[in-house]
Structures are given as C-alpha cells and as structure tokens.
Amino acid sequence: MLKKVLIGSIVFVALYAGLVQFQILVTQKAGRGTGIASKKETDTSHKVYSFSFSKYTPEGAKEIEIEGDSADILATTVYLSNVVAKAYAEEVPVTMTADKGNYDKARNKVHLHENVVATTADGARLLTEELDIDPTEKLMETQVGVQVKKDNINIEGLGAQGDSQLKKVKFKKNVTVVIQSTEDAVPGGGQAEGGPTVITCDGPLVIDYSKNIAHFKDNVVAEDKRGKLIADVMDVYYNKVSRRVSKIVALGNVVIENPDGNKTFSDSVIYLADEGRIILGGDTEALYFEGNSDSFAGGNKLL
C-alpha cells in the first residue's frame, strides 16, 4: 500500500512539474512576440527632429548655417527637408532654400535639390533643381538647368558655377540672356517697338556682375527687333546706371544683319550703343538691299 502511495505521489509531482514548464514556455513565447511587435513599431515610426548647425573658419568667421527637418541628426550625412541655408562670404550671406537636401559634416559640403532658390544681399536670385555648395571654397555649382535673375537681366543655361555671392558666374552651355531695357517699357508691362535684347550662345558664358561685363563664346547671336549681330566670340558691356547694353565687342566671323536683309561681314566689330555707331575691323564686305534701314540709329539698338 505504501508503495502505491509513493508511486502516486511521484506521478503527481511529475505532472505538476510538467505543467509548470508548459506555463513558463508559453509565457516566454508571448514575451518574445510582444518584443518583435514593439521593434517593428519603432522601425516604422520615424521621428523628425529640427536640425540646426553653424560652422566657423579657424579665424572665427561664420562659414555656413544650415537648418531643416531630419530623422537622423546624429548621422555623418544629415538628410534634410524644408532646408534653409546661409553661406557666408565677406560676412554677407547668400540665403538658400530647398525642399530637400543633405549636409556632409565630414566634407563640409551641402547638396540641395527640388525647388532650390539662392538669393544674395544685392537682389540676385538663382533658381535650379539641384545645387552643390562648398562653404570653404565659397562656391556653388549645378549641372542641371539654371536661371539667374539680377536687375533687368535674366540668364538661363544648362549647368553653372559661381562664387557664393553670385558676383561672377559661368554658365556652361545652351545660354540665353534677355536684357529688358527700361527705356523700352510701356504702361501695362508691355514692350515698346525695340523690345528686349536677346543674346544666345552655345557656351560657355562668363558674366562678371561686379565689372558689368559678359563674355560669350561659340555661335553667339545678339538680336532685337531692329537687327542681329552674329560672331564666334562676343563681349557685352552693361551700364548699371542706365540698365542697358553700352558696348559690344564681337570677334570672328562677324555678321551684321538688319531687318531689310542688308548684311555686313567683318573680322571684328565694336558697337558703341550710346553713340549709335560701329567700328569695323579686318576684312569687311557688305551686301545691301533696297529698303529703309534704321541700323545704328542710336539708343540701345544693336543694328
């Protein structure tokens, strides 16, 4: 009898221990499942932080300010949205905005993209879809379509590089420049008979806003309603006070054409807009047709 009781007790203890082990196993599995769900929730829920950063030169001058929204502000490369950046040169910043961008802390480089606008203190505005900024070298560059507006001059091209104040800009190719003459403006925002001066070239174009001169290269065509000037190379001088073209120096395979079809061929031409005259250089040949020509009659007329 005693033997049966001992055997029964052993069986009961074994069953009880098995039940406890089963409960522990179920509890552990339930715990691991909760952990995985929490981790996935953490992975899929991105917290966005405000990022603000300033960098100074060894001399203590401010070099770059950048701020925006980021999901990882501690990364070496911070990816941003709603970006506002300021690049400093001579203590005067150019302010840039973009929908997106990134800042490489190690290389001190900024890349902006989507609806990029850069505005200088003197009113120049650069618009593009991509822009790389090197705060240390004080340079900005883009490889895509770009537009720069300043005063009454609008320039478009494919690719550009310039200093961070947009004082000197190189447009790489497919350049179009439109100069709106204030004298030609009429009420209602229209244009008088002369209209704007339009200059195109294959590129590059280098424009120095501080010296008010633009250097065009390759297949250069300057035109308004009163005529056309064609050359391999052309330097266009701009009078900042009158806000119009003051002089053009054209070199190489120069062709002057007026609306009547009259053409003059020359090795070089100097056009003095304020005096309304030209100076031909090298070999010259003229081809004239009957008609009324108002070429070089003065003012801002090209031809």
Shape by Cα distribution: elongated
Classify the beta-strand content into a percent band. Answer: over 45%
Segments where pLDDT lies below 50 for 5+ residues? 19-45, 184-192, 292-303
Helix content: 10-25%
H/E element sequence:
HEEEEEEEEEEEEEEEE
CATH superfamily of the domain at 167-303: Lipopolysaccharide (LPS) transport protein A like domain
Main sheet attributes: strand count, strand direction, barrel closure: 16 strands, antiparallel
If you average the pLDDT, what whole number results?
78
CATH architecture grouping of the domain at 167-303: Sandwich
Q: How many strand segments?
A: 16
CATH topology of the domain at 167-303: lipopolysaccharide transport protein A fold
* CATH C-level label of the domain at 167-303: Mainly Beta
Structural class: mainly beta
Number of helices: 1
Estimated radius of gyration: 35 Å
The N- and C-terminal alpha carbons lie at a distance of 131 Å
Verbal overview:
With about 300 residues, the protein is mainly beta. The termini are far apart. Helix content is about 15%, strand content about 55%. The chain has a domain at about 165-303: lipopolysaccharide transport protein A fold, CATH 2.60.450.10. It has a 16-stranded antiparallel beta sheet that branches. It has one helix and 16 strands.
